[in-house]
């Protein structure tokens, strides 16, 4: 039984984890005096672990997160306005499966993007395709595609992921045409894909963001239908961390320095 033949078969079957770790795995099996069934279990487990890891890596790179953030890395004590129970429930990604909306609202620096990336990561771990983009980038993409006669293609692309994370809605107001294009995206995803929106504006102020009251109502109607809202109050985490380290005393020091 030539060894490279086994190697070739494992390659052909795409069992690359078993192929690469075969000696170690067989030694481990021999040491533990495993039955054949147990050995098969050990080999399959190694392969499944490798495939899962690859799938997650691929999902993370497709998602285009702007940074690496996890729920484990989020200090709930630093942000008492957030209900940890609600975030833990959202971490199960049931809302993603249902095609619901999550709104993370609050002033700058309170951890909206952190939580958005972390919840996106949880969704990927559970097998849901995810795409992260800023509201500005989505609008720019839609407007450009519209001008170039490729709107349909872009809408299809943005409607495909099971979860679309739209970061920083409201930092810049939309132009009238843009609000209408955004509405088309929201309505295409409605009750199919899940959407997570972060915003520094309250929902009541979104009408002003979209620039057109009728379109704003239509967008809100769909976004808020099955929604979970996390409103974060309090100070910027960044400033708080600096204050704690004694780098700055308070917000006015920062304002004076910049
Ligand atoms: P926002 O999107 O609300 O403006 P970010 O999510 O970008 O704020 O948070 C700013 C920085 O502070 C990020 O580096 C983020 O990881 C960190 N941060 C914010 N809140 C927390 C927290 N409660 N625990 C740990 N890190 C936090
Ligand atoms: Mg942010």
TrEMBL record:
Where does the record place the AAA+ ATPase domain?
Answer: 98-230
The UniProt entry, under PANTHER family, shows: ATP-BINDING PROTEIN RV3427C IN INSERTION SEQUENCE-RELATED, CHROMOSOMAL REPLICATION INITIATOR PROTEIN DNAA
User: Taxonomic lineage per UniProt?
Assistant: Bacteria, Pseudomonadati, Pseudomonadota, Betaproteobacteria, Burkholderiales
**Full protein name:** IS21-like element helper ATPase IstB
Give the UniProt family note.
Belongs to the IS21/IS1162 putative ATP-binding protein family.
Origin superkingdom: Bacteria
Q: Which UniProt keywords apply?
A: ATP-binding, Nucleotide-binding
């Amino acid at each position: 039984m030539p060894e490279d033949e086994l190697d070739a078969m494992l390659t052909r079957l795409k069992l690359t984890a078993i192929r690469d770790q075969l000696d170690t795995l067989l030694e481990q099996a021999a040491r533990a005096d495993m039955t054949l069934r147990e050995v098969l279990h050990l080999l399959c487990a190694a392969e499944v672990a490798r495939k899962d890891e690859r799938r997650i890596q691929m999902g993370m790179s497709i998602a285009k997160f702007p940074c690496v953030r996890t729920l484990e890395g989020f200090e709930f004590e630093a942000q008492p306005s957030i209900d940890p129970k609600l975030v833990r429930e959202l971490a199960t990604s049931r809302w993603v499966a249902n095609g619901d909306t999550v709104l993370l609202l609050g002033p700058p620096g309170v951890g909206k993007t952190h939580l958005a990336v972390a919840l996106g990561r949880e969704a990927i771990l559970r097998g849901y395709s995810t795409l992260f983009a800023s509201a500005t980038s989505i609008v720019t993409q839609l407007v450009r595609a519209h001008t170039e006669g490729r709107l349909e293609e872009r809408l299809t692309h943005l409607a495909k992921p099971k979860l679309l994370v739209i970061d920083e809605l409201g930092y810049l107001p939309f132009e009238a045409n843009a609000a209408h294009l955004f509405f088309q995206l929201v309505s295409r995803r409605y009750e199919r894909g899940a959407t997570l929106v972060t915003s520094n504006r309250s929902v009541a102020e979104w009408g002003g963001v979209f620039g057109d009251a009728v379109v704003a109502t239509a967008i809100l109607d769909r976004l808020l239908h099955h929604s979970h809202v996390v409103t974060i109050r309090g100070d910027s985490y960044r400033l708080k961390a600096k204050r704690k380290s004694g780098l700055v005393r308070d917000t006015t020091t920062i304002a004076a320095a910049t």
